[in-house]
Write a structure and sequence with these properties.
elongated, mainly beta, 6-stranded mixed β-sheet, disordered N terminus, 7% helix, 343 residues, 5-stranded antiparallel β-sheet
Amino acid sequence: MNALILPSLCLALFSACLCATAQDKPAATLRAQTLPVREVTVFKDGHAYLLREGRIPANAAGELVLDELPIPVMGTFWPYAADGAKLVYAKSGHEESENEVDALDLRQLIEANQGRKASIKDASNDMITGTLRGVPKSADGNANASFVLIESTEGTRAIDLMQVRWIQIEGQAERRIKRTIQQARLRLRTESTPIAGGGAEAKVGVAYVQRGLRWVPAYKLDIDGDGKARVQMEASLVNDLIDLESVTMNLVIGVPSFEFSGLNDPISMQQELAAVSARMDAQQAFYNVASNALRTQVAGFAGDAGPSSATPEVAGGEAAEDLFVFTLRNITLKKGERMTLPL
């Protein structure tokens, strides 16, 4: 067997064994509406298996809402409830949320200060003083007019925004503006969470495989001249996925192959259905993958692995057959950072 092919069920069982040493952190250290990474298993090809768990406060509907949505590999997303509770469901969707952002142009500054006294000078050096009535919007709120309305004792005047030379707002101008955005969120519900009322907490977790975190081994060979040699190994970590803080990290030598490694799980809200259909042609060996048959266990299922990777490999007869694991503890590595450490 030149490649280890793990379906989502086998991968979950394998990774659960690796992650059995994950420890809980006090609930007081957890931020609301996010799940910290407890343990991560890193493969050399850039895939990583993440175990995230924490206590989340429930909303009025009894749901635990996460403000972030992972992008797992197809078939590897596994949500669960801890503390003996049972998970009822996990669902994702786009929701509207309102937040404040800095006003970055004249239009937004005027919008942020509607109802305030102001003086506007146009390109003709005419000045009008009155109350800002803002920039009119279309009925659906997606388009703004190209003029600003200002109301004075003489009436309401519309001034082309391109003609405004400067604007002076009475008092301290408001520099923040509210914006409604579409945000992808993950909602979980457990049997122990009240249907209504909110305020309760539940301990939940998610486990999944996602690209963006990899490690590269490096070796140093010292030859003493007497027929003996000493081999040292170090790991270079490349994190482009997520912030890691005091996590347990498993570095794996040997790379499982994922049949759908280039496709995202439906929970991520990505459009992958057409690609999945194309991969499930009746003439392919992966046909009937959705059935209960574990086709990955059929001899000869794995095709040609192609050219070998340029990543350094451990020499030895068992290197291609087994997964060798190095476990590191209390690793902190922010997204975008790199780290090299001896093994």
